[in-house]
Amino acid sequence: MKRIVAASSLLLVFATCEPVIRRVVTLTFNEPADLVTISASTALGNAKPGTPDAGRIADEREALLSGNDEWSVRFGNANPESDRIVMERRHGELQSLEHIASIAPDDLQKFFFDTHLTITFQRGEHSAELAIYPGTSDRATRQQREKVERALKTYSERAAHYFETIRGLYAYLDQKPGRAEDMFTAVFRDENDPPARVSDDEQKIVNGVRDAIDAVLANDDDTADLDRDFDVVFNPFPAEMRISVAGAILSSEGFTRTPDGLLVVKTPTALEAVTMLQGRWITPDPLAVAFSAPDNEPSQQIALALAAMPRRAEPVVSATDVAAALMEQMRPAPRYRVRWIVHNRKD
Fold it and tell me: 105, 116 in Cβ contact below 8 A?
C-alpha cells in the first residue's frame, strides 16, 4: 500500500471506505407527529467479478427485484395504506432501490419487528419523543465473529504500537521542544514536499511514526473488512438510521446531528474509533488532528498546529487495553432519544 501521511490523503482514506451494499433508512415525522414516512434505500456498489463482494451484490439485486429483500418484509408487516418503490437502473441493471411508505408512529415497532431494536413513541400536547434501545446483534455468523476477534487483535496491536511511537516522539520533544515544528512537518511530509529538516536520528523517530500510521491505515488480509464484520457482529441496526423531525428539538442523546438538521445513528469505523481515543493516552493525536482538519488544509498548517499544542503521553498501553477502548467506541449507544416540539393540526 502506498504510504499515506499527508492530511489530504488521510481524509481521502476516510471518504472512500464505502460499503459495497449501502442501506439507509430515514424516518421523517410530520408537524403534528401523527405520521412518519419511512424511506428505506439500498444502493449497490461495484466489485470485481468472482469476488465474495460481487456475489453479495448479485444476491441483493435479485432479492430487491423479486421483492424478497428484508425491507419489503418489514413494510409488509407494518401494513401501510400505500407505498411506492423508486428504482434506478444503469444499462438495464439495478443500481439502487428506495421503498417509501407512511405509517402511524405507534406502529414503528411493527416495522422493525425482526430486529433487536426496541422503539417507543410518545406524543403529548406540545411535544413528542422517540426512543430507540438497541439490543444485541444476531446478524453475524460464527465465522464472522471469529474473524472479528482475530482482526481486532491485529488492529489493536497496530494501534497500540502507533500510540507507543507517538509517546517516543513526545519524549524526544520534551527534551528538545524547539524541534516540534520540523518533526511534525516531517511526519506529514508528502512525496512532493521539500526535504525534511531533521537529523538522521530524528528521521528514525519520524520513520517509526510514519510506519505506524501506515499500519493503522492499511487494509490488508489481516484486517480487511474489519468495519463491515464488526458492524454485523455488534450493531443491531439493519442500516444507517436517520431521523428528521419538523419541530424544534428540545433534547437528544446518542444521535449525531448533521449540519442539515438530521439526527443520525452513527457507529464509527475502526480508524475513526482510534482518533476518538485522543486524550485517553496521548494528547494531541496526530491522526485525530489530521482527520479533523479541513479538506484543503496544508500539511504545514497541521504541523504548526500540532507543534503549538501542549503534549501529554501516558505509559505504553497494551493491545488488550486498546481493543477494549475501540469496542467501547464502536458499539451503539445504550439509548437513542429525541424530544421535539409538535404542532397540532388545525381544525
Answer: no
